[in-house]
Amino acid sequence: MRFPRRRRSRSDDGYVTAETAIVLPALVVLLGVALWAIAVAGAQVRCVDAARDAARAAARGEPDAAVVAAATAAGPPGCDVVVSHQGDRVVVIVRARIGPASGPLSAIAAPVAQATAVAETEPG
User: Fold this and answer.
1) Is the pTM of this model over 0.85?
2) pLDDT at residue 20 in the model
3) Rounded to an integer, what distance in angstroms lies between the CA atom of residue 72 and that of residue 43?
């Protein structure tokens, strides 16, 4: 016995194209958010490293200009460095504003990465 073949309905044509057209922009936005979050995390790590390196340099007794130069070189572009001496301790604060995102992410406020490092000055 032979069963008759069912003909595929023409009303199903184009579903894959329509689903792709809806999902693809969402995936692009999700990728943009992920890349922007990675950039923010990277800037935070660079601020932490810059503050730590600058605090070590200040603890060794290097002049403040050299400490700021070391932090600026290690930190993200355009970072601000504040060095303060509090008794036998030196405090270094590195702060950087991460550039605003572009495209649909431009509505998100530009975050500020900040790190503080404290070191005791070495004797002598």
Assistant:
1) no
2) 83
3) 13
